[in-house]
Structure formats: C-alpha cells, structure tokens
Amino acid sequence: MHEIKIYYEDTDAEGVVYYANYLRYFERARTEWLEEHGLNIRELLGRGILFIVARTEIDYRSPAELYDTIQVETTISEVSKASFWIDYVIIRKQDSKTIVTGRTKMACISRERKILRLPQDIVDKLS
C-alpha cells in the first residue's frame, strides 16, 4: 500500500484534491508495486521493454482534502499476452473512507513503439 500526504500543490482553490492528480497517485502506486514485485522500470528499459497506459477508468466517490493522508491499494486483476490491468482503491487513512477507485490497462511495447508479448518472467511476477 502506497501512502501519500496531500499538500497545497495537490489541491484547487477550495483545498480539494484536483481531479487529475489521482492519475499521478495511480502512477506512483503502480511504480511502487512493480518495484516491490521485482519489476524495476530502469532494468526493463534496458531490456527494451516499456509499459504504456492504454486505458484508464476512474470513479470519484468522495473528495480528499488538504492535509489528508491517502493510501493507494494496488492489485493486478488481469494479465493477457501483451497487457495487464491494475486496479486501485484510494482511501483516506484518517477514516478509511473510499475516495477513488480506478484501473489502468498497461500495454507492453518496444522502444520502436511496437506491441510486445509480455516475457514469461514478467507474467510470473504479475501473477
């Protein structure tokens, strides 16, 4: 679980987290999850493997506000030949209220921007 404290820079004029920032929080949590499971982005780049966001779905349920601490729970829900889905649940730590739910479809591509089949070692770590 990835934890983030909400600062002024994250909010709009009313002290509520700006809606697009949740995608940044997804990105941070996704990177942490991959690292924790042995998938270092720099090492993957060295192998010519890149992950791109092919699709995003997000549902806003309740606002996070200035000085809240949020926790992003990250899970892999589907793995196919060349892509995988990551699901996210963002909760406010102070009261365990669900703030946002969402998911991203990550596609595997080469440096030449061609779709790549996920190597078996990566599939194993995602499963």
Can you describe this structure in just a few lines?
The protein has 127 residues and is α+β, with helices and mostly antiparallel strands.
SSE run: EHHEEEEH
Q: What is the assigned CATH homologous superfamily?
A: Hotdog Thioesterase
CATH class: Alpha Beta
Could you say which overall geometry the principal axes of the C-alpha atoms support? Answer: elongated
Number of helices: 3
Give the integer mean of the pLDDT values. 96
Strand order of the largest sheet: 1-3-4-5-2
CATH topology category name: Thiol Ester Dehydrase, Chain A
CATH architecture name: Roll
Any low-confidence stretches, pLDDT <50, length ≥5? Answer: none
What percentage of the residues does DSSP assign to strands (E)?
35-45%
The total of beta strands comes to 5
- Report the C-alpha radius of gyration, rounded: 16 Å
The biggest beta sheet is recorded as: 5 strands, antiparallel
Domains (count): 1
Structural class designation: alpha+beta
Euclidean distance between termini CA atoms: 18 Å
Fraction of residues in helices?
A: 10-25%
Distinctive features:
127 residues, alpha+beta, Thiol Ester Dehydrase, Chain A, five-stranded antiparallel sheet, 3 helices, elongated
Explain this structure.
- The protein is an alpha+beta fold and 127 residues long.
- The chain has a single domain (2-126), classed as Thiol Ester Dehydrase, Chain A, CATH 3.10.129.10.
- The chain contains 3 helices and 5 strands.
- A 5-stranded antiparallel beta sheet has the order 1-3-4-5-2.
- It starts with a strand and ends with a helix.
- 23% of the residues are buried.
